[in-house]
Amino acid sequence: MKKKAIVMVSGGPDSSTLLYHLKTEFELVPVYFDYGQNASDYEIVAARKISEELNLHLEIIDISSLRRTFLGLNRRDNISLSINGNCPVALLSIAGLYATERNIDTLLLGVHKEDFPEIKNITSTLNKYSEVLEEFNNKHVEVSAPFITKKKKEVFELAKQLNVPFELTRSCERNSYIHCGECNPCKERKHSFLEAEIQDPTKYLAQHC
């Protein structure tokens, strides 16, 4: 019997690749935390499509009532779901508590090396976080980031090997059906396709960017 693991998903290529990468190792529970981010509707659609491709049921946790809290902490008007830069302590705390309530002792993140340039040893930091969760909840939850030694380009290369349907994934933080091509996540997406020498199937509003 496979061990259960919660995967924090955004509908993006990184967390989608993580699902494909670990589909035979764990009984995966993809979870999307909706805190009212601008592109949440489109991210949920992407996350659901990827989950369906893997015959997984996407769980959506509505914490949109915390939107003002996240905005106040982050000091931005335009927010998107990513562990990097968007109240990581708050999001991880909620995800960790959700895992303990579900009696699932593994929490997986699709973040990569370039998401945390300011932290020297993110694995050690996540281990410490696991210890804090256990101390407060009397339950052990292993928080792990399998791609933390990889660059985004390498995650894309792995995604190609695993036949991840890039066209179903979502990176844009704007509230538009088509990727804008101008926001930072869009630029990172395009750059990663170029670096990995993979044809980009994404349609962008700003094709000139």
TrEMBL record:
Its EC number is 6.3.4.20. SUPFAM superfamilies: Adenine nucleotide alpha hydrolases-like (SSF52402). One of its GO terms (molecular function) is ligase activity. Pathway: Purine metabolism; 7-cyano-7-deazaguanine biosynthesis. Keywords: ATP-binding, Ligase, Metal-binding, Nucleotide-binding, Zinc. It holds the Pfam family QueC. The keyword Calcium does not apply. Coiled coil: none annotated. It catalyses: 7-carboxy-7-carbaguanine + NH4(+) + 2 ATP = 7-cyano-7-carbaguanine + 2 AMP + 2 diphosphate + 2 H(+). Belongs to the QueC family. This is 7-cyano-7-deazaguanine synthase. It comes from Paenibacillus glucanolyticus. The lineage of its organism: Bacteria, Bacillati, Bacillota, Bacilli, Bacillales.
